Amino acid sequence: MSNEQEHNFVVSQENWSLHRKGYQDQQRHNEKIKDAIKKNLPDLVSEENIIMSNGKDMVKIPIRSLDEYKIRYNYEKSKHVGQGNGDSEVGDVVARAPGDGQQAGAGNGKKAGDNPGQDYYESEVSIAEIEEALFKELELPNLQEKEKSEIITEKVEFNDVRKKGLMGNVDKKRTILTALKRNAREGKAQITPIYNDDLRFKTWNEVIRHDSKAVVLAMMDTSASMGAFEKYIARSFFFWMNRFLKTKYESVEFEFIAHHTEAKVVTEEAFFSKGESGGTICSSAYYKALEVIEEKYHPSRYNIYPFHFSDGENISSDNKTCIELVHQLMEKSNMFGYGEVNGYNRYSTLLNAYKAIKHPKFKHYVLKEKADVYHAMKSFFQKTAERV
Amino acid sequence: MNGTKELTKAIEEITEVAKGFGLDFYPMRYEVCPADIIYTFGAYGMPTRFTHWSFGKQFHKMKLQYDLGLSQIYELVINSDPCYAFLLNTNSLIQNKLIIAHVLAHCDFFKNNIRFSNTRKDMVESMTATAERIAHYEIVHGKEEVESFLDAILSIQEHIDPSIIRFKLPPKTEDDTGAADSHKKRGEYDDLWNLDQREKQAQSKKTKRQKKIPPSPEKDLLLFIEEYSRELEDWQRDVLTMMREEMLYFWPQLETKVMNEGWASYWHQRIMRKLDLTSSETLEYAKLNAGVVQPSRTSINPYYLGIKIFEDIEERYNNPTEEMIRNGCEPNKGRDKIFEVREMESDISFIRNYLTKELVAKEDMYLFEKKGRDYRITEKDYVQIRDQLVSQRVNGGFPYITVENGDYLRNGELYLRHGYEDIELDIKYLEHVLPYIYQLWGRSVHLETVIEGKETLYSYDGKEMHKQRI
Fold first, then answer.
1. CA of B133: how far to CAs of B44, B47, B426, in Å?
2. Do the domain assignments include residue A44?
3. How close is the nearest chain B Cα to the Cα of A106, in Å?
4. Is residue A34 within 8 Å of A133, Cβ to Cβ?
């Protein structure tokens, strides 16, 4: 609809609904973010921001490939011009360096952010996005159907509407709508009268749900040889493992078993922070694990995942017992994972002994650097669990 | 279509008033669009521009700010003949009135400012063609391939030579004649200084007598790569040419931001005052206007600075000082003067010539710098402030890069030089851009700049970044 004027101008309003270019390119940008996440997964997975955030928030991660790089000036090292109210003096503070986010710059409402240099681009990535990318590549091996006798919860859900029911459950909105429609059919634009036939009731159904539970028996060597790096690696691993299992089970519990020459159940906090001195006897942890299973987590009700992190140092005489116990543990659990944090290729007595174990439930991985957390996840929870 | 009639009537009236003031603009095409369309155009700079993820990112950012109520674009105007102006369909009538007055002055500026004299007025159509061609290349060569090439060009797209008059680069095959000329240019007795070196020179001259590319430092990096890169395929050269065209088209807008916005704001105020507004309309207008021309503590609002300078010029030329009269100024010629200024100047000369000491003091302008964690005011001196504003506008606010040698080390390597003027480059960014240039040039790329007072050369050889003091 347009109309030519003598003044030589045209006003028109067209249908722009097919003009989707902005959205299409936005889509492409999103794809690139996803792609960047995927490419950087090994780094992201061990990103401190995430592990320490307890997985609740959005995390700011610089996704480098998505910056639009140009040859530009260093904003921090150059001078800028501003304007005061008439009483500005040398030495006045006009802004703070952006500690988080950008300063509330410019009342220039028309074009935001047209000052080059102020545009620090850091993509915000939700942990969900990283999970999506990561878990796509993982699968739970040896999933066993637990007996159906496991805990069944019965729930009542109001998810149906019927014509008959208890007056207390009357669905007012639907009733009125029905009455309106009927009256409209009769040519009257009104709600009343409402007949019995118009009444609608909310009705419930009984829902039966099978509760599935998993427990992770996190075991870690806390002897003197396990430093901050080793613990961080273990922590990152358990962090993702927890989140991953949560996508598969309704509830995931953790038992933290710290050991040196003897083992005890500790809190998460103590597990990851406390260091102890002394030598290492791994079998102590396995004994403890078996004990815990016996006490609290019956294999018929729980999917059990014992995972042991160590630096590989163990008293040689203990190795035989360890292998024995690992087999016992595997009988009761879905899989047994052994992660060895060994950044310097030390000779590892324990791993050497474990190499002899040929069992589909037994998995081990040597982590050398942060990025290996990702590879360890992939190795433990392989998609096609054919390689043993 | 609420109020098209009213809108048409308002446009008629405003156009009449604008003409009465002597504004001279192209025929206008007003398009009323929904917000996402306006923001698309804002992000792309042009409704018909080619597709690229960076525009999508920009669009998303702008749209988000709009959705959150943080910022709003009311209008968009395109330098073309006829001139397109896009109005947001949720604008109130009074908002539209202000915008139409504002847009007419922009259009007058596009039509009359000298920097715009070379811009193509059919750019809307031309960009459509470009977009179609790039889309076609995507089909032929693959989306990834084209996108990666666009990424590379976009990283250096501002490094063109926007001079109104420029000379052509020598063709690739041309024999060297330049060296002989430069020989002649030397002073009469200069040869005395290096008599003993003469023989050596004569010898080396013979072997060295090869063309130097470019003969003198070349500002137009895009053009240089387009002409001399051995890496590019035909379709890539084509894309490069088209993108350079687009940049040339956008460049005058970068160069005249303060003036252009100042001019438009100056006129929307004058025109609005001529209209017959009700008191509630006047109030709404005053609020809007205040939002647009609002000074900021941490940056310069081009709308505000521009209008203040224009008003100051008019004021001073209406009441010239004795000195000005001696130089031929007549009283009450302020209006004529600002029309002259809008025709002749760009931001640099505008600020340099017309930002007076009194105005800087009156507007309480200052320089601030990062000191520790804070940005502190460090200077209130007029000359410093003016010069800083000017230097920020030099080369559209981008570092000045020239091609020094296209055959560096006799190995076809590219040697670039940053014309350092007290502001360092962002090294992190530079280290990402060099690989892009490498991608376009196909051989090692070097860039000379100054870091912490020392001349430093950054090089990228396709694998690694090197940094060395010269």
1. 17, 16, 34
2. no
3. 5
4. yes
A223 and A297 both lie in a single domain = yes
User: A57 in helix, strand or coil?
Assistant: coil
Which one of B25, B132, B298 would you mutate to disrupt binding with A, by most A Cβ within 10 Å of its Cβ? B298
Asked if A236 and A371 sit in the same domain, the reply is: yes
Q: Is A298 exposed, middle or buried (0-12, 13-18, 19+ CB in 10 A)?
A: exposed
Name every residue whose Cβ is closer than 8 Å to that of residue B156 and which is 6 or more positions away in sequence. Answer: A70, A71, B221, B222, B433, B436, B437, B440
- Residue numbers of the domain that contains A320: 213-380
> And the tokens for A59?
């995390």
Please report how many Cα atoms fall inside a 13 Å half-sphere around the Cα of residue B157, on the Cβ side: 23
Residues A181 and A264 occupy one common structural domain: no
Would you call B312 helix, strand, or coil by DSSP?
Answer: helix
Rounded to a whole number of angstroms, the distance from the CA of A59 to the nearest CA of chain B is 18
Are β-strands A302-310 and A213-221 bridged in parallel, bridged antiparallel, or unpaired?
A: parallel
Residue of A nearest to B83 (CA): A9
Tokens at residue B329, please? 């100024």
pLDDT tens string B144-160:
999 999 999 999 999 99
Q: What is the ipTM of this complex?
A: 0.80
**Other CB atoms within 10 A of residue B231 CB:** 13
The token duo for A152 is: 């069944």
In terms of domains, do A187 and A304 share one?
A: no
Secondary structure (DSSP) of B272-301: HHHS---HHHHHHHHHHHHHHS---SSS--
Number of H helices and number of E strands within chain A?
11, 13
φ and ψ of B229, to 5 deg: -65, 135
CB atoms within 10 A of CB B142: 11
Strand partners, B327: none
- Range scoring the smallest mean pLDDT among A185-189, A190-194, A288-292, B166-170: B166-170
Closest by alpha carbon to A20, among B27, B326, B213, B40?
B40
CA distance B306 to B262: 4
Q: Tell me, what amino acid is at B33?
A: C
Reported as a single tens digit per residue, the pLDDT across A252-305 is: 888 888 888 888 888 888 887 776 777 788 888 888 889 888 888 888 778 888
Cα B148 to Cα B440: distance, rounded to the nearest angstrom:
11
Q: Please name the helix (run of DSSP H) or strand (run of DSSP E) that holds residue B347, with its range, or none.
A: helix B347-354
Residue A118 lies inside a defined structural domain of this protein: no
The dihedral region occupied by A248, where left means phi > 0, alpha psi between -120 and 50, and beta the remainder, is: alpha
Asked if the structure places residue A107 within a domain, the reply is: no
Radius of gyration of chain B from its Cα atoms, rounded to whole angstroms: 26
Least confident of A345-359, B117-131, B351-365: A345-359
Q: Is A208 on the interface with B (CB under 8 A)?
A: no
d(CA B8, CA A10): 9
Query: What confidence category does residue B2 fall into, taking pLDDT thresholds of 50, 70 and 90?
Result: low
Rounded to whole angstroms, how far apart are CA atoms B126 and A187? Answer: 59
- HSE of B419, CA atoms in CB hemisphere, 13 A: 14
Using the Cβ of B399 and the Cβ atoms of chain A, whether some distance falls under 8 Å is answered with: yes
Section B100-116 average pLDDT = 95
B188 in contact with chain A, both atoms CB, cutoff 8 A: no
Asked if A111 reaches chain B (Cβ–Cβ under 8 Å), the answer is yes
Total count of domains within chain A: 2
* Residues β-bridged to residue A156: A206
Asked if the structure places residue A128 within a domain, the reply is no
A246 and A325, same domain (yes or no): yes
